[in-house]
Amino acid sequence: MKNSLLLALVIFLGFGAYLNAQKISDGQSIDLNGMSVTFNILNKESIEVGGKPFDRYKVSATVKNNSDKSYNIRLSSFPQIVSNIGIVELDCINATGAKLTSKKIQLKMKAQIINVTYSAYDKSGKFTNSTIPVTGSYYFDAGDSISDNAIFIVPQGEKPDVSVRSLK
């Protein structure tokens, strides 16, 4: 009884995430909470995977922050793993994922890199200054754009069936 209730809850929560998703097609822009999301097909070719015919699409996605709101994640002074830097996610429902290709594109906040200078002794015992790049924060300011490309492999004769949803 507990297992079936838990399974129903997991299915409900997973389905709820996709209720907020909207369909998007080639060349279309959609407004999500003040962010303009654009999806484009850049290239199409027919391929064969495991003896079956498929269509291989190179696609591009762009999100532009048209709102007055900026998104920021400031990191603390100790090593920190941040996994919630996604802004929007485009999911190709009919993508196969064959040949290590994508099934989704997640557009993520930009990283702010800070050069940190530190002093230390090198192997020869000499005191030296060195500089390393460190991620200080993640941001997506008003007016900024973020783009990414991916490869989707779909059954031959089908176009990518893509939905988009906001992660913020």
Compact summary:
With 168 residues, the chain is mainly beta. The chain has one helix and eleven strands.
Question: Can you put this structure into words, describing what you see?
Answer:
By secondary structure, the protein is mainly beta. Helices cover 11% and strands 56% of the residues. It has one helix and eleven strands, in the order αβββββββββββ. The strands form three sheets. The protein has a four-stranded antiparallel beta sheet, with helices on one face. A four-stranded antiparallel beta sheet has the order 2-3-4-10, with no helix packed on it. Strands 5-9-8 form a three-stranded antiparallel beta sheet, with no helix packed on it. Strand 3 and strand 4 form a beta hairpin. The chain is flat and about 65 Å long. The two termini are 35 Å apart. 15% of the residues are buried. About 8% of the residues have low confidence.
Task: Name the features.
mainly beta, four-stranded antiparallel sheet, 1 helix
How many separate helices?
1
Helix fraction bin: 10-25%
Q: Based on helices, strands and strand pairing, what is the structural class?
A: mainly beta
Runs in which pLDDT lies below 50 for 5 or more consecutive residues are: 6-18
| Beta fraction | over 45%
Overall 3D form: flat
Q: Strands of the biggest beta sheet: in what spatial order? A: 1-11-6-7
Number of strands: 11
User: In whole angstroms, how far apart are the ends?
Assistant: 35 Å
Could you describe the largest sheet, including whether it forms a barrel? Answer: 4 strands, antiparallel
Query: What is the N-to-C succession of helices and strands?
Result: HEEEEEEEEEEE
